[in-house]
Amino acid sequence: MTTATQEKKAAPPTGSSRRGAGRRRLYQWLFVAPALVYMLAFFGYPLVRNVLMSFQEFTPRTYFTGESPFNGLENWRGVFENDLFGDALWQTILFTIGSLVGQFTIGLGLAVFFSRRFHLSAFVRAILLLPWLVPMVVSAVVWRRIMDEDHGVLNSFLETVGLSSDGVAWLSSPSVALLSAILVNIWIGIPFNMVILYGGLQEIPRELYEAASLDGAGPWRTFRSVTLPMLRPVVTVVLVLGFMSTIKILDLILALTGGGPADSTQTLGTLTYQLSFLQLDFGQGAVVGNVLILISAVFAVLYLRVNRADHQPGK
Amino acid sequence: MRLRTGRIPKPATALALAGTMAALGLTGCAAEPDPDTVTVLNSATDAAEHEANQDFFDRCAEPLGLEVEQISVPAPQIASKALRMASSDSLTDILELDGSELPQFAETAGLRPLAETGVDTGDFSTSSNTLGSFDGVQYGVARSVNSLALIYNTELLAEAGIEPPETWDELQAAAAELTRGDTYGMAFSASPDADGVYQFLPFFWSAGGDEAQLNEGGGAAALQLWQDLVDAGSASRSVVNWNQQDVNDQFISGRAAMMINGPWQVPVLDGQDNVDWAVASIPVPEAGLDPVAPIGGTVMTVPKNEDDRERERNAGRILDCLNSEENQLAWGERINNVPTREAAAQTYREQNPKLAPFADLVTTARSRTAEVGTRWPVISDALAGAFQSVLTGQSSPEDALERAQQQATAGE
Predict the structure, then answer these.
(1) Of B107, B109, B385, which has the smallest distance from its Cβ to A263's Cβ?
(2) Tens digit of pLDDT for each residue in A151-200?
(3) Is A66's CB within 8 Å of B87's CB?
(4) How far apart are alpha carbons A155 and A153 in whole angstroms?
(5) Are A61 and B83 a contacting pair at CB < 8 A?
(6) CB B237 to CB A259 under 8 A?
(7) Nearest residue on chain A to B194, alpha-carbon basis
(8) A–B: how many Cβ contacts below 8 A?
(9) In this predicted structure, what is the pLDDT of residue B411?
């Protein structure tokens, strides 16, 4: 790079050229430095510490004495032998897939719906954004009341319309609670999906639709052959961001069910919280944290792959 | 090439700037606090609570020529905040912890034994002293303590012609009788956290349960009682989601005729006129047995400060004053907790007949950590798992405790 630009100019005396190149390189690094320092300090360091911590005996004592002896794989063994870890992992997967599928399909449906302008469409769209603006803990507390088995609005509604006679134990039955948590999270995630997808839809050139209709494509055909392919980059972004924020879910679950009943809504997020901040076993907490990071990293790499494929020359 | 002549700060200047900022930041952390100020870390985030605390601190600090500065964070964050402060050597002079968190801090050897700070707790109730002890050494002093009792709706019980139940049989019968329409006979918290476990303990312990050996002793009977109450429809199936606040809400709205709760609900109970209430002791498995309730509350500790022992002594003086008979009594009445000096507790009992059952209960109450020390958080978790799985019909009481015991000892 540098040499190429150097050659373009009339060659100055050799000595000064070398100094110039060095200085230029220095400036280049200076421009990169802030980002680099930031990444190292706020991503690299905590990451490395977290990995190290998972191999250390890190307890309250460590904070006073500064000693955190390495204990090999003991933390890892402790976590993997804990029955709860397997359950939490499985429930995290169910929660993530369930949430993403629900958020995305409903979000996309609404985005397509609102992309046809009609009276009050902007107003209704704005209203649908509300769940996004409410803090997650507030939503969870409200939903806890709505889903109350005895006096919740949801059960009263179901009884009124005759769908259920004796109330669904939304939050107090281990077989339903995870589904309830997923439903609440879908409700929270719809606005995000809708907004991004709606933005993506606006970017699709109108001519394509005109061409499609000239070619005699019906609505479904247009959606499959024009909308979806054109929307693909946006779809990947929405799904990856949704995945990242869903897999580490903590606050919603803590406020909604506290991981219960009978651990049926424990996720990796609540497990690491429990280990680190309630049992103060920071080593084991770090292990679960690392598993979460690993899962996220796999998907981040997949995302980059997909993205790179999209931006290859000639595409 | 304007780049060369442009007014970009020289790298050296930038580095120097960054260096200065970092240095400033570091010295900022290590700044020596004022020698006449005693700092306190507590959970008094509520404005009124913060002020009440400050009032008592000032009362004690002024005659000593000291000032007290409170740092308050929400109760669940106290432990992690204190640990972070400890690692940067900036821990406060007084650290107020929940009693159940004390062992983990005492174990670090970062706390000064109370005897060395000049605080004498000889006249305090034994149960309150165990709350501040770890491995036979007392590190923390409790100004006042609380426990759990049966709080009942006097109107509903009178209508049904029922006396407050004293035994489990009476409790089940009364709860069934009082369950009508929208109202459950009984409410308690069985949430999978500290609240639920705190509420389970009076039943578990009164039945002869042992936290060190969960599957031995009579603990299963307590699980059975809870399950029977829910299965009979005398308590809502939602108890597995209710924390103690929710239980109180149910009671106040008239949806529960009786509840298990603590004296910290008194301001809320007093502040409403929907239901009339009274307090009774915790029902016991059989007539004649003593109830064994858990003792709760915060303890004040003095973190070690080897560089400046004078600060420790100042903290000790403040603690000593806060725990005078007069101050304990005033504080106890302020927050509806029972003072820990036996004489003060006696006066408190006489002056607050409505809350007398709490005063009686704390004399036989047990500390959660007295027997198992630092293992408590793991055991607490295992117990929560046990009652949650029983109440949701996933396992029998015996199996649940068997599994809980395995869970509690897994790391050993």
Answers:
(1) B385
(2) 889 998 998 888 877 788 899 999 999 999 999 999 999 999 999 999 99
(3) yes
(4) 6
(5) no
(6) no
(7) A278
(8) 106
(9) 66
Tens of pLDDT, residue by residue over B165-193, are 999 999 999 999 999 998 999 999 999 99
Closest alpha carbon within chain B to A173: B392
- Domains of chain A by start residue, with CATH: 85-310 (1.10.3720.10)
Would you call A171 and B108 a contact, using CB atoms and an 8 Å cutoff? Answer: no
Helix H or strand E segment including B258: strand B256-261
Rounded Cα gap, residues B291 and B286, in angstroms: 10
Neighbours of A314 (CB within 10 A): 3
Q: Largest Cα–Cα distance of chain A, in whole Å? A: 92
**Spans of all domains in chain B:** 37-145+296-364, 149-294+372-408
* Res A4 pLDDT > 60: no
Say whether B378 and A279 touch across the interface (CB within 8 A).
Answer: yes
Q: How high is the pLDDT of residue A272? A: 93
**pLDDT above 70 for A294:** yes
Question: What pLDDT, on a 0 to 100 scale, did the predictor assign at position A313?
Answer: 54
CB contact under 8 A, B80 and A277: yes
Q: What are phi and psi of A88, to 5 degrees?
A: -60, -40
Give chain A positions within 8 Å (CB) of B236.
149-150
User: Taking CA B242 as the corner, what is the angle to CA A187 and CA B361, rounded to the nearest 5 degrees?
Assistant: 160
B240 and A261: CB-CB below 8 Å?
yes
- Distance of alpha carbon B362 from alpha carbon B130, whole angstroms: 12
Segment A113-118 shows an average pLDDT of: 83
Q: Which residues in chain A have their CB less than 8 angstroms from residue B240's CB?
A: 172, 260-262
pLDDT at residue A13 tops 70:
no
Q: Which helix (H) or strand (E) holds B184?
A: strand B184-187
| pLDDT at position A68 over 90 | no
Phi, psi angles (nearest 5°) of residue A265: -120, 20
Interchain contact, A63 vs B107, CB within 8 Å: no
Cβ(B197)–Cβ(B376) below 8 Å: no
- CB-based contact, A71 to chain B, within 8 Å: no
Residue-level pLDDT at B27:
43
Asked whether residue A314 carries a pLDDT value surpassing 60, the answer given is no
C-alpha dist (Å) from residue B241 to B105, B248, B324: 30, 13, 40
Q: Which residues of A touch B392 (CB under 8 A)?
A: 172-174, 261-262, 264
Q: Identify how many contiguous H helices and E strands chain B contains and give both numbers.
A: 18, 13
Same CATH topology for B37-145+296-364 and B149-294+372-408: the answer is: yes
For B94-107, write each residue's pLDDT tens digit. Answer: 999 999 999 999 99
Which amino acid, B245? Answer: Q
Q: Are strands B94-98 and B37-42 parallel, antiparallel or unpaired?
A: parallel
Pairing assessment for the beta strands B144-145 and B140-141 based on DSSP bridges: unpaired
Fold classification of B149-294+372-408 is D-Maltodextrin-Binding Protein; domain 2 (3.40.190)
Distance CA A5, CA B223 (A): 79
B208 touches chain A (CB under 8 A): no
Superfamily of domain B37-145+296-364, CATH level 4: Periplasmic binding protein-like II (3.40.190.10)
Partner B, chain A 159-178, Cβ-Cβ below 8 Å? 169, 171-174
Flag whether pLDDT at B220 surpasses 50: yes
3-state DSSP call for residue B320? helix
Q: Where are the beta strands (DSSP E) in A161-255?
A: none
Measured in residues, chain B has a length of 412
A274 contacts in B (CB within 8 Å)? 381
Do B192 and A61 make contact, defined as CB atoms within 8 angstroms? no
